Amino acid sequence: MIYRSDDIIVKTISRILIPFIQLYALYVIAHGHYSPGGGFQGGVILGASLVLLFLTRGYDEAKTRISEKTVIIFASLGLLIYSGIGLICLLLGGNYLDYSKLSVLLHVNPARARALGILGIETGVGFAVMAVMFSIFFDISTGGVLPEDEEEK
Amino acid sequence: MNTFFIAVGLSICLLTLLVLYRVVFGPGVYNRVAAISAIGTKTLIVLLIFGFLYNREDMFIDISMVYALLNFIGCIAAAKYLEMGS
């Protein structure tokens, strides 16, 4: 179980760094087709920022920011975005994840629709990876036993 | 200029071996944590030198920033583990 850190250096540095890490993760996701990175890498960086929050603020305070329920919702939302875009392409008469068919819905030319479709896919992957990364760290650090469960016994 | 960068990169790689000695044989856990953090920093510099050699600084700076972030978080996690013992 991880408790809140009382060291002022760690607390201040993490408070300053976490927003910049998240901004950088959004940059990595959005620029995935120009530079190294993409959905998975950006999701991992987003997850790392949450892990830093969890390490410095402890279990109790991190749970008020992002609870297990929120993590599950984010993971399912990412999967829904990914498979939803693929299924929409399938319904519009193309193959699964054939983004060029999205040009009918978005009113742009097929090349532009491909770029936007890939951005949507990367966003979904980023959500899912962030949530699952944090969930793995959460489960390992608590050993699968939450404080609420121990109180009920 | 390329020769200079290659020489700097090679010497940093050789110096990393000295730090690796401290990781393997170093007395105490604190020496090991500090040495691992130093190895991470040296890896970052070698990445940047690769970027200059291939003239793709923009891409390698992105990668090295992520490496620095993960190194920082890993260092904090190790320190937290030593503090709490759990």
Secondary-structure topology with pairs:
The complex is a heterodimer of chains A (about 150) and B (about 90).
Chain A: H1 8-30, H2 39-65, H3 68-91, H4 103-106, H5 110-142, H6 147-152
Chain B: H1 2-25, H2 29-53, H3 57-84
Helix pairs in contact in B: 1-2, 2-3
List keywords for this structure.
heterodimer, A: 153 residues, mainly alpha, 6 helices, elongated, B: 86 residues, flat
Description:
The complex is a heterodimer of chains A (153) and B (86). Chain A has 153 residues and is mainly α. The model of chain A has no long low-confidence stretch (mean pLDDT 86). Chain A has helices at residues 8-30, 39-65, 68-91, 103-106, 110-142, 147-152. Chain A has one domain (8-143). Helix content of chain A is 76%, strand content 0%. Chain B is an all-alpha fold. Chain B has one domain (2-84). Chain B is 90% helix and 0% strand. Chain B has helices spanning 2-25, 29-53, 57-84. The longest helix of chain B is centred in the C-terminal third of the chain and has 28 residues, at 57-84. Chain A binds chain B through residues 1-3, 5, 10, 14, 17, 21, 24, 28, 35-37, 41, 45, 48, 51-52, 55-56, and chain B through 58-59, 62-63, 65-66, 69-70, 72-73, 76-77, 80, 83-84, 86.
